Amino acid sequence: PTISGIRRRGVTSVSLRSFAIGVGVTKFISLTDMAVFDHAIREDLNKRALRRLAGLRPLKVVITNILEADAFEVEVANHPDDPSMGTRRLPFTRELFIDQDDFREEAPKKWFRLAPGAEVRLRGACLVTCREVVRDAAGAVVELRCEWDPASQGGNAPDGRKVKSTIHWVSAAAALDAEVRLYDRLFLNEDPAAELQSKRYADVLNPASLEVLTGCKVEPALAETTPDQPLQFLRQGYFCRDRVDGRGDRLVFNRAVTLRDTWAKIEKAGAPGASPP
Hints:
By secondary structure, the chain is α+β, with helices and mostly antiparallel strands. The protein contains 5 helices and 16 strands.
């Protein structure tokens, strides 16, 4: 709720000024939807944020038909709409991490990400098909065994077949461990002041306003990131490196705002066959 606090989260002065100008000046007390603030942040960061790959809830993937000796590098853009930001090279190895949210063992209707027998594109790398699901003693899914199509190296199949989903990934051999802090609404109600007439302050706070994830897997380029550099973790949201706890070798990232997620909207609406992440 403070300027220094939202700055530490990665909200820029440009975003704040844009929001203030958009709201304007009025003689009346009024409420502005937080979505307006989020929009101002996205409009600014989308133009300047470097794109990076991160598995916030990592799930191991083993490409069974490739050897470690056959690992290769892929070149990806730092920003899809700004060539001046350059490119970087990522190692593609036999063992990878994807995000748990990109896999469903029982795929509901309109699910186009990874599932048993399904083929997806690993961004910038190739097409892979999930062949086997590995569980631990408690029955939790801990590993996926997939096959890649060597002819699809680069991301497209020469036979012209199409896949409906592209997911992000990180090489297990090159991945760095990170802590990621996911910030959400501070209050449960859009007008907490009205509720405070009958409730305690603590009762109107959102208990899920901060989720701290440890053991996240991120690409190597994030080791060189400074707190003032906006980042977009692909398909996750906009982030920045924490200016207090993310110093030195410690990688700590704060989420400024989420990305709009079509599937999340479907699940929230309770679509038939939808299952929680």
